[in-house]
Here is the input.
Amino acid sequence: MFRPLLRATALVSALALVPLATSGLAAVENDTYKELDEFMNVFERVRAEYVDKVDDKTLIKGAINGMLSSLDPHSSFLDATDFQSMKAQTDGNYGGLGLTVSMEDGAVKVITASEDTPAYRAGVKPGDYITHLNGQLLFGGTLDEAVEQMRGKPGTPVKITIVRPGRDKPFDLTLTREVIELKPVKWEVKGDVGIININSFSKNTGAGVRGAIVGIQKTLGHRPTGYVIDLRSNPGGLLDQAIEVSDVFLDHGEIVSQRGREKNDIERYYAKPGDDTGGAPVVVLVDAGSASAAEIVAAALQDHHRAIVMGERSFGKGSVQTLLPLSTETALRLTTARYYTPSGRSVQEGGIEPDLTVPQLSDPDYKTRPRFREADLRRHLVNQAKVDNAVLEEDLKDDPRFKLTSEQLEKQGVKDFQLDYAVKTIARLGKLPAVQTAARGK
Here is the structure.
């Protein structure tokens, strides 16, 4: 049973009084005690001599955050506010603008804007920097503080100032906060193709994908020619939901494994018999915003040759975070393992290379907008088995197949080139006799 973190002061002080023979501490080196003594000396000096009075809670939280930030970008301490916020996001219901952001050199950087949210509708893009909120400089604080300022009462406006690489000047957007009720799964039918758009991996994503397949077949009156699984700008979420979604399209084999510190600390997850789609062709769309659980699904279907992965190289987050409750109101989000694809590769740093690189030609900024990935984060975990050029190769080399401009595509009525290309790919596959037979349910 974990004790509340606010008792850390007493715990650290007591360490010096415990004999070395005490179980669990006997192996602690003398250097560790010296470091703990130094920590307590700093703690006491700050309490006694800092220019303004600081309470113990603030100092201890700062020390904890500093300790965790020295590990990797994804380990963090969650106080009562952060803990409730994380629960809300996992449940797919929270208030704000719909942004997933990170902190880079004191600046707030956008990882992705969730679909059907104020930020998404206003045109906020991955790689944008948010420099001001309502004219106030947003720089130098913590990520939690920045997120807290962006949230607020639904219906209230907030003006954000954005610096977008490739543009000469910053620009302002006025957004209205609203309750963000993320629909983890949406679906539609184009022609004879079912499109399943997975926006996040929250607690009902697996059930949502199964429901989407049923809805698509009911709409068409038969099995579709194939499916497009859209995982673009999906920041990930729950591991069990990634496994469940993968299992929808697989009827055997390993989906993912996670490996901890020790060699024998390995957990493997497998598909159960039965493919809900009857083996229909599948195209998976990914981009630089496809991370974590989204990469698990894409990699599992790619390794089993169950799907064609299309789009751009994914984010490259191949680590597993475990939520460790410390009290009823606080928790530790700690990186405890790396995950590996069925073929034994890690996507950490390098991401998933698509089978077919398809640029988003309908985005006029796609050439100038930089891609922000795991490898760009400070203190990211190193992929020990990466190939030298895995994260250095350019994503968008010129390809004679992709010469259209965004203006030309707009005239043709194509608003989403990647999705259009994926749908047409499924349609071409549907002309194969074996696929036609499967679509008829034979």
Observations:
- The CA atoms of residues 291 and 406 lie 26 Å apart.
- Residues 30-49 form the longest helix (20 residues).
- The radius of gyration is 24 Å.
- DSSP finds twelve helices and 19 strands in the chain.
